């Protein structure tokens, strides 16, 4: 399992100016949770508090953007309405043809697409997911 310190070091190593929107307040996070009718796992909550939304090396983690734009809530609600995304999943990365979703019940990250629905587990937690994505992208 990864941790926030490993993720933070990788972000510092590969990050550039304006890669992230900036941290969100606990009030904004609570609002995003209410909009998705979920409670975010601690690791994802930490990411939003520290970085808001964004990423490095072409990775774009959906969170809360500038002026409290609730990207995570918007895309999650949209996929729930259009494609029956399960209520315990929130969308954390949109890869055009598929999505990475965080399960708010078990904190695991899943592959999901609008045809087959929830697929395989890609990481046991958000930190492991983000660390693996950054390391993979740094090698390509």
TrEMBL record:
Domain called Knr4/Smi1-like: residue spans: 23-132
Top-level division of the source organism's lineage: Bacteria
Gene3D superfamilies referenced in this protein's UniProt entry, alphabetically: SMI1/KNR4-like
Record-linked SMART domains: SMI1_KNR4
Species, as recorded: Listeria riparia FSL S10-1204
InterPro entries, sorted: Knr4/Smi1-like_dom (IPR018958), Knr4/Smi1-like_sf (IPR037883)
Name under which the protein is recorded: Knr4/Smi1-like domain-containing protein
């Amino acid at each position: 399992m990864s941790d926030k310190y490993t993720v933070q070091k990788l972000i510092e190593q590969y990050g550039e100016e304006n890669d992230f929107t900036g941290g969100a307040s606990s009030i904004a996070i609570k609002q995003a949770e209410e909009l998705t009718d979920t409670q975010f796992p601690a690791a994802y909550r930490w990411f939003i508090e520290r970085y808001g939304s964004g990423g490095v090396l072409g990775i774009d983690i959906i969170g809360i953007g500038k002026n409290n734009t609730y990207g995570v809530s918007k895309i999650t609600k949209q996929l729930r309405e259009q494609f029956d995304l399960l209520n315990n999943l929130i969308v954390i990365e949109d890869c055009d043809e598929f999505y990475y979703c965080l399960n708010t019940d078990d904190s695991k990250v899943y592959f999901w697409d609008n045809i087959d629905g929830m697929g395989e587990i890609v990481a046991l937690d958000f930190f492991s997911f983000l660390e693996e994505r950054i390391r993979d992208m740094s090698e390509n």
